[in-house]
Structures
1.
Amino acid sequence: MEPGRASTQLSATDARAPARVRGPIYLDHHATTPCDPRVAEAMLPYLVERFGNSGSRLHAYGWEAEGAVDIARARVAELLCAERDEVVFTSGATESNNLALLGVFQASRQARRHVVTTAIEHKSVLEPVRWLERQGCEVTVLRVPRDGRVREEHVRAVLRPHTLLVSVMHANNETGVLNDVAAIGRLCREQGALFHTDAAQTCGKMPLDVRALHVDLLSLSGHKLYAPKGIGALYVGPRASRGRLAPLLLGGGQEGGMRAGTLPVHQLVALGSACEFAMAEMQEEGVRLLRLRTRLLDTLRERLQGLHVNGDLDHRLSGNLNISFEDVDGELLIERLQHHVAFSTGSACMSTSLRPSHVLLALGVSEDLANASLRLGLGRFTTQEEVDATAEHIVRAVEEARLPSTRGNAAPTRAREGVRP
Ligand SMILES: *Cc1c(COP(=O)(O)O)cnc(C)c1O
């Protein structure tokens, strides 16, 4: 049997939930997903028995590893409707984003270079863009309207003849809001700019076709689609290859010279396996998650006043709910809820500082509402019982965290430092 190939037809109900340690209900699937036990099972033999280096050309250990790499690459390509040789394996979406942005800049021989991105991107796009700016690159960071959707006409308005690259994420990791990447990609193509999208949140959640989306570069991450952490990929289309992308890592020339380093074969097998399960199950899973999310939102709206949904609800990942509450002490809300439900407020990467999310602020959400926001991410193993229990926990926590004052007379929010244990 091929690695990760299920012997029977796959359905969401076949997926076995990982044995959960007793703890809060896990609703933080935008931060990370558990490794699917079927994926872990597929990868294990490549840690122990089939340990070969896929670059070893002279013996069966190497050939076996190489075969597994080929299958994994084919599965990732299939999920993206791409060709196998367009997939470059990386350590995750952070590296993929860095490779796309820095690599295109490095390879460009243009004297004047202009890069466009948006204020709601992940830090692994915004920080490389800031670095490019320090290297003398002209940078435009687009504002995003209240509904969280990047507008094609805003991109059109800032494109110049010397625009090298445009990077707009597919779905935002906080609001789950989807961008019309196909329209923006088409526009970039017309104007001769390369187009990159960070698809870490959509890959494996909805059908992706790199050609229909008109993307030249696309980032994905294993641990957002039920594979382990530490593996990802960058799709490199025909317009971005052939000298238009410089590698960041030099060495043994792996991945067509685009990313040196011995391939972590077990990780690739896991990612390939996760892609295959996603292909087979994403539609059914999406419908199920949308039903659960709707049930959760309906319950909360029925029971609580002053609830705001952050970002457009109709163009959104089915497992995402990002909500804020009026007249609520955000710090107290987190304190009351965090032992029952694992959620996030703002981006997980910033949650140690607990500053209001740069994404919500970019959408014009007030600081008070941003501080009293919950990002809930439902996933493959989330059950209806968990959703119902979560609704109860949120209702109780919000009621306990309600400010005594009424609207327009909100008490000052306390300093947010040191809330988390
Ligand atoms: C998680 C995430 C990343 C970072 O991915 P890693 O594989 O953890 O480096 C980048 N962009 C988005 C949108 C993400 O959700």
2.
Amino acid sequence: MIENRENSIEIDKENFRKIGHQLIDDISDFLSSIDKKPVTVNKSPSQLQSILGNNTLPENGTPATELIPRVTNLLLNHSLFNGHPKFLGYITSSASPIGALADLLAASINSNVGAHILSPMATEIEKQTVQWLAEFIGVSPSYGGILVSGGNMANFTAFLAARTAKAPKNIKEDGLSNISKKLTVYCSKSTHTWIEKAAILFGLGSNSIRWIETDSSNKMNNKVLEETIKKDIENGLQPIMVIGTAGDVSTGVVDNLKGISTICKAYDLWFHIDGAYGVPAAVIPKFKKLFHGVTEADSIALDPHKWLYSPLEAGCTLVKNPQHLIDTFSSHPEYYNFTSTEGETAQNFYEFGMQNSRGFRALKVWLTLQQVGRNGYQKLISEDIELSVLLFDLAKKHPELEAVSQNLSITTFKYIPLNYKGDNDYLNKLNEELLNELQTGGELFLSNAIVNEMYCLRACIVNFRTTRKDIKEIIEIVIREGRETHSKLQLK
Ligand SMILES: *Cc1c(COP(=O)(O)O)cnc(C)c1O
């Protein structure tokens, strides 16, 4: 009977409260004692599969009262915790607890933020979030944009807008094969791999990327950039965009953005900034001049799930003239009746990016921005940078460490045995081994970077739980494990 529809998917009010309260209790216990847990588990995929139980698709249902406690246990005991104060790997931040509550609420309302009519308040919240993010990094709040899943998608979205704006107009109908001049794009050698994916996926091909060399400070060499553009034009190619990086993924270097913008203006090119990691540091008055030129960008990618501490996933594309997004992504199928409300034209986010149905990822970003505020972020981001400088200084002072680089909140360094006289190859091998030991040991989590052909340990601090004490302990752990790894390798 479907009059009084009893079914196995609904959870009645009492049970929902009971399961929910228990879950919230478990999460708050977890968050308040996260520093006591190992950062990660050292288990192989097959060990994890056997813990998981290799059952086939369940034929019959299991009550939620059993499932939620079971999965809570499973995850709390077999995960890597990037919210751990000693997690400084890659560029993955600790997540704001309010973001977890936001996701629960967002999933409960289940707004489809593709169209205004399907998500009236959620769409307005996302619009406000985009505007606040523009204000946060110090560009005009008239920039428009969209939240996407992360930095790659944010850069892809901007790349496509640039292609529409700067490639011949007929590519929409005729595609890329019918254009006479080969399109080219420019970026420094230290640009994140998204650019290669974009060039391949969006039809330009990887040979269309001009990898511009970097200068001694690891910034794109703007002189070489301009010469390369000139030469390409002379050779009948069509440059369309330059990508500047604001915080490169290995060492945190910010390109000379102002210089790039001048070149883009001179040659009528789209100026995109990949600020996925670093651009939020522009909120700190002291760092403003490092990001000089950011206001000239045609588009900017940033990642709230990095230095704004939003839970995964949240990236954002900002575009100076948002009409470029509509020109790129809008289509009007007959079965959409999303026109206007109350005489005003509503913004439909499906016209701003690649997704059609879209979740409400803005909520966690919007709430964290309000909970912390501009001042709170200035403090958090400054402290991350200070801790990174502290790590660099401690490494510099230590006789068994070499401090290699420090930019924004990324420090690279390496372990060198006392009185070491050998070659660089062994040091590379030693530090690689050491990193493997550290990553599986569970006490801390670092990643690696290759700097000047040296294999380095890399710490990126986007973690509001890390303290000075953690940094000092990290040094001790690296030294202890470094010595051990060295003597193990000597015995081999
Ligand atoms: C992290 C990062 C990306 C990729 O972002 P995801 O969120 O991992 O997709 C791109 N560019 C830079 C500079 C980054 O730091």
